[in-house]
Write a structure and sequence with these properties.
Layout: H1 2-20, E1 28-34, E2 48-53, E3 59-60, E4 65-68, E5 71-72, E6 80-81, E7 86-90, H2 92-98, E8 104-106, E9 119-123, E10 129-134, E11 152-154, E12 167-169, E13 196-203, E14 206-211, H3 217-220, E15 226-228, E16 234-240, E17 246-251, E18 261-265, E19 281-284, E20 295-301, E21 311-316, E22 322-323, E23 328-332, E24 338-343, E25 350-351, E26 356-360, H4 363-369, E27 378-380, E28 391-397, E29 403-410, E30 426-428, E31 441-443, E32 469-473, E33 476-477, E34 488-493, E35 499-506, E36 512-521, E37 525-530, E38 543-553, E39 558-567
Parallel strand pairs: 7-8, 26-27, 33-39
Antiparallel strand pairs: 1-2, 1-11, 2-7, 3-6, 4-5, 4-9, 9-10, 11-12, 13-14, 14-17, 15-18, 16-17, 18-19, 20-21, 20-30, 21-26, 22-25, 23-24, 23-28, 28-29, 30-31, 32-34, 34-37, 35-36, 35-38, 38-39
């Protein structure tokens, strides 16, 4: 009889084992967030989140909690969430309304979900973090829907670490899909390697590494996956919860002030199993407090194009390391008092000697209108000080409120022959020359796209002046779209800013066939491309063509260049 009882109890014990086994990371996911329910679409005016059992067994939610940076909810009630099933979690006041849309439970102290985004995470009864995410209003990918009434939905529960690329605004006509499969559901595998974005020092022997996505816990803790220059020995490693995008490293010896170190990471994987690739190293060191002149305003856009935004570029012209989180941007009000002070960033980000950093309110707009070589150099501010289109004042401050640099700009500083300065940045010519000297500022070149945010200015003074040089590459080209020498590029190098160019192309008989460039503002260097077509967009015959370039400036200087190029007809197989 005892044997029979034991046999009878085995299935129940197996079921119980399955029920309590769901304590692994990502067993339960936050798959939908209603952070801004107003104005309503067709769902109740309450905040809520949706959970999905992403495991293969039932999981009892009793004792689980939702948390954010400000605290945590009360424990969830006794509820068995079946494998693959969804449930709504909300406040007690919302429970009655939300229950009509599907299985729902309430918790006390349900976190207030910020409309613009915040960090939220799910904890099991033992306090283990099972899923965490830091959502943003930009995740909606829809300007109308992010204004309210629509939920954020996870695209693919099989890729829980994808962040922004795995979330978008609900497509359901009600504004969301509480307690059911998301309207945006589709396969969205994570195929990208994690990247090491930043490293900073928290103490003389504590370094924090910042990655672009959540990492796999097991791969993080191997000491052999990390190496630091100058023979710095690593004593211990710790993954930083709840996102596990950061790794804290403790060194056996203290770091030396003023020295630049580099760390290299290998073997670390994200939670989808992708191993870190070439973007696996970062510089760090002990930062200094900047003083006046260490960091200067190097470029400013104060008259942006329609639907675009101002930006200010800073340049570290010292030999020291600075933390951008200790630097602020400001202006002066009508009484000339420093005002509208905004920190560049709330998170540590180091500015090394010779580095640039850009402040703006919209990095997507900046990338749309200008070439951004390194998005990591762009600091997205919640707001910018006002910089009027005609004249204004830009100031940078250190943490003590001391002025590091101040620029009182004027639209008259733009190049005199420029008909419309809208969307054209003012660039500093010499980083070491006086900030307030109008002659030290010039309009960004047309060939640079009228702005160079985050890298060397198109009008920056060359250390060793050279004569103007124009050359054509290649000397023989064949515009037959075979991917080989299809375009002739006319490259130039100038010894000073302020030159304009006209470029006309003539055939062998001396007849003009293409007016390629007219009154183009040149930078220190740049290029123009010729595709072998005439002014009417028609193909020109093979032969020798003369590129006649005339450059001139406001001082009456003028130079003429004649270069030949062969337009060849390439035989095709």
């Amino acid at each position: 009889m005892n044997i029979m009882k034991a046999l009878f109890l085995i299935p129940g014990l197996l079921m119980l084992t399955n029920v309590i086994s769901g304590q692994n990371r990502f067993d339960i996911l936050i798959t939908e967030i209603m952070a801004d329910p107003s104005p309503q679409v067709a769902l109740p005016n309450y905040e809520w989140i949706e959970l999905k059992n992403n495991s293969a067994a039932p999981i009892n939610l009793q004792g689980w909690r939702i948390a954010d940076a400000g605290g945590q909810s009360g424990p969830m009630p006794d509820y068995l969430l079946q494998a693959g099933s969804y449930i709504i979690v909300c406040s007690n006041s919302a429970l009655s309304s939300m229950s009509s849309f599907g299985n729902s439970i309430a918790v006390t102290s349900f976190p207030s979900l910020d409309n613009d985004g915040e960090l939220i995470f799910l904890k099991d009864p033992s306090g283990n973090i099972i899923h965490a995410l830091e959502y943003s209003s930009e995740w909606y990918g829809n300007a109308l829907k992010k204004e309210g009434g629509w939920s954020l939905e996870m695209i693919d529960p099989a890729s829980p670490c994808n962040g922004a690329s795995n979330w978008k605004a609900s497509m359901d006509e009600r504004g969301g899909t509480p307690a059911s499969q998301n309207s945006v559901y589709t396969s969205n595998p994570d195929l990208d390697s994690p990247e090491l974005q930043n490293a900073y020092v928290r103490d003389l022997n504590i370094i924090t590494l910042v990655f672009n996505e959540s990492l796999d816990n097991t791969s993080i803790n191997h000491l052999t996956n990390y190496s630091i220059t100058d023979g710095i020995f690593i004593q211990s490693i710790r993954a930083v919860p709840p996102l596990y995008r950061e790794v804290e490293i403790i060194t056996a010896t203290s770091l030396t002030a003023g020295k630049i170190y580099e760390i290299t990471v290998k073997g670390v994987t994200d939670c989808s199993g992708n191993e870190i690739g070439s973007k696996n190293h970062a510089r760090f060191g002990i930062p200094s407090t900047p003083v006046a002149g260490d960091i200067v305003i190097n470029e400013i856009l104060f008259n942006p194009r329609p639907n675009a935004f101002d930006y200010v570029e800073l340049y570290n012209r010292s030999d020291k390391i600075f933390d951008a989180s200790t630097i602020s941007l400001a202006n002066r009000n009508s009484s000339q008092t420093i005002s509208s002070i905004v920190s560049l960033t709330t998170k540590p980000y180091y500015l090394f000697p010779g580095d640039y950093i850009v402040a703006t309110t919209n990095v997507a707009s900046l990338s749309l209108h200008y070439h951004v070589k390194d998005p990591n150099t762009v600091m997205t501010l919640p707001s910018m000080p006002s910089f009027p289109d005609d004249k204004g004042i830009a100031i940078i401050l250190n943490q003590q409120g001391e002025v590091l640099d101040e620029l009182q700009y004027d639209e008259d500083w733009h190049f005199k022959l420029m008909s419309d300065p809208e969307g054209v940045a003012l660039e500093r010519v010499d980083a070491d020359a006086e900030t307030q000297n109008p002659a030290n500022w010039h309009s960004a070149s047309s060939t640079s796209g009228y702005g160079t945010p985050g890298y060397k200015n198109s009008q920056a003074r060359m250390p060793q002046p050279t004569t103007a040089l124009i050359e054509v590459l290649p000397s023989i080209f064949s515009p037959d779209n075979d991917g080989l020498d299809d375009i002739a590029s006319i490259h130039y190098n100038m010894h000073e800013p302020g030159w304009m160019a006209n470029l006309t192309i003539f055939d062998a008989a001396g007849r003009p066939v293409r007016s390629l460039v007219r009154n183009d503002l040149m930078g220190r260097n740049g290029y123009w491309n010729w595709d072998g077509l005439d002014d009417k967009g028609m193909k020109l015959p093979a032969g020798i063509y003369i590129l006649f370039t005339e450059i001139f400036n406001l001082n009456g200087k003028k130079q003429v260049f004649k270069k030949s190029v062969v337009l060849a007809a390439r035989l095709k197989n």
